[in-house]
Specification:
Elements: E1 2-6, E2 21-24, E3 48-52
Antiparallel strand pairs: 1-2, 1-3
């Protein structure tokens, strides 16, 4: 499972339509207990862990959507 961190500050200056988000492949992090605190580069707010499920072809519906 990938680990994704998102900014939840409603006043963040991130120019995108959604909030700022960083995603890491599971193999790049030993475990989530050994990750330093991550901060948004736009507002300085601490990023919050959001779970991103792995998507495998066998788990997709027949029309290939999640």
């Amino acid at each position: 499972m990938d680990l994704s961190y998102s900014c939840v500050n409603h006043n963040c200056s991130f120019p995108g339509a959604n909030s700022f988000e960083m995603t890491f492949k599971s193999e790049s992090i030993m475990d989530e207990n050994n990750v330093a605190s991550l901060f948004c580069p736009f507002c300085g707010n601490e990023l919050i862990l959001v779970r991103v499920p792995d998507v495998f072809p066998e788990n997709l519906s027949k029309d290939r959507t999640i």
